[in-house]
Amino acid sequence: MHQVERVLSTFPQSFIGGAVVTQPLNGSMWYAAVAGGVGAVLALGKGLVAR
């Protein structure tokens, strides 16, 4: 269950970070969503490897 919590907390953090970067650069919010997804997948991978 801890792994799910990590993924669910990483996605919004990455999304917000992506949104902060894309807004001044006139980037799409889809890029922020992709960044959030990539961050969540990396968190999941890191957790699986750490096990």
Structural class: mainly alpha
Low-confidence stretches at least 5 residues in length (pLDDT < 50)?
A: none
The dominant shape is elongated
> What distance separates the N and C termini?
13 Å
Number of distinct helices: 2
The largest sheet, given as strand count, sense and whether it forms a barrel, is:
none
SSE order: HH
Determine the strand fraction and express it as a percent band: under 5%
Give average pLDDT, whole number: 78
Rg, Å, rounded: 12 Å
What's the count of strands?
Answer: 0
Written description of the protein model:
By secondary structure, the protein is mainly α. Helices cover 84% and strands 0% of the residues. The protein has one domain. The chain has helices spanning 2-22, 29-50. Helix 1 packs antiparallel against helix 2. The longest helix has 22 residues, at 29-50. The protein is elongated, with a radius of gyration of 12 Å. The mean pLDDT is 78.
Please write out the topology:
Blueprint: H1 2-22, H2 29-50
Characteristic key phrases:
51 residues; single chain; mainly alpha; elongated
Briefly characterize the structure.
It is built from two helices and no strands. It is an all-alpha fold and 51 residues long.
